[in-house]
Write a structure and sequence with these properties.
Elements: E1 19-22, E2 29-35, E3 38-45, H1 51-66, E4 76-81, E5 85-87, E6 90-92, E7 94-97, E8 102-106, H2 108-112, E9 119-120, E10 123-124, H3 127-145, H4 157-169, H5 173-183, E11 193-194, H6 196-201, H7 203-216, H8 221-228, E12 235-236
Parallel strand pairs: 3-4, 4-8
Antiparallel strand pairs: 1-2, 2-3, 5-6, 7-8, 9-10, 11-12
Length: 238
């Protein structure tokens, strides 16, 4: 997991700048790390053990999203935690809150210590899937940054489409191919309804269909615009 940067021993800001602050009254001090090559990524953590990986994964997500003219508009704040997240009734490794514009993210060791053994897309969870989980939450934040005047979508289908496509998009080609082949589904087709109901029933199928649909379109920008302005319970594929 150790990667070196030609600019700095680590790809986060302690080579340049470091802030110390108190999260809550009476709590232990936590540090804010700013990714050296990504000044819009700020990570709040007790130490730097996961910072380099978060910076790398965030960078991959931002590069993937830039293909579709989607860019961060303001600082993306990531808070590292050691406990699972209750996301509308189910346990999650990460969560993006639209109101605070902040990501909560479990550390990799805390995820791997979970019981039963954690999985992602019907595979054992590992370091590469952790990169995907980080990218998923970055996509949620970037999506919200680009929605314009829409504040509260009635459904998260549009966001989840983009988040899962990004999550698969940052994986290695070999890992992504194995997931796609095992899912035995194709891309979303004209007339399909993209919904969180399908995602709940077949999360891996939802992710694969979304990735294939997004990456196989010759001109994806009209559909990206549709996602950003969707305010209904599902997305009807044109």
């Amino acid at each position: 997991m150790q990667r070196k940067s030609s600019r700095c021993p680590h790809k986060y800001i302690p080579c340049y700048l470091l802030f110390i602050f108190t999260l809550l009254a009476g709590s232990a001090h936590a540090k804010i790390f700013i990714c050296a090559d990504l000044p819009l990524i700020e990570i709040t953590a007790a130490d730097n053990s996961m910072v380099e990986d978060i910076c790398d994964a965030s960078g991959k997500a931002i590069v993937f999203l830039a293909r579709y003219q989607l860019h961060p508009k303001r600082v993306i704040m990531i808070q590292m935690i050691e406990t699972s997240i209750d996301d509308h009734g189910y346990l999650a490794y990460g969560s993006y809150d639209r109101q605070s514009d902040r990501i909560q993210l479990m550390s990799l060791p805390s995820i791997l210590q979970g019981s039963p053994p954690p999985e992602m897309y019907d595979q054992p969870f590992d370091e590469e899937h952790y990169y995907g989980a980080i990218a998923h939450e970055i996509a949620h934040a970037v999506f919200q940054h680009n929605t314009g005047t829409i504040k509260d979508q009635l459904t998260s289908a549009a966001q989840e489409y983009l988040a899962h496509a990004t999550q698969l998009g940052v994986l290695s080609p070999a890992r992504r191919t194995r997931i796609i082949q095992a899912s035995n589904v194709g891309p979303w087709e004209a007339g399909d309804s993209i919904s969180v109901t399908y995602m709940g029933l077949r999360p891996t199928g939802f992710a694969v269909k979304s990735y294939l649909h997004l990456t196989q379109m010759q001109d994806p920008q009209p559909f990206i615009n549709l996602l950003l302005h969707n305010n209904w319970f599902y997305i009807s594929v044109p």
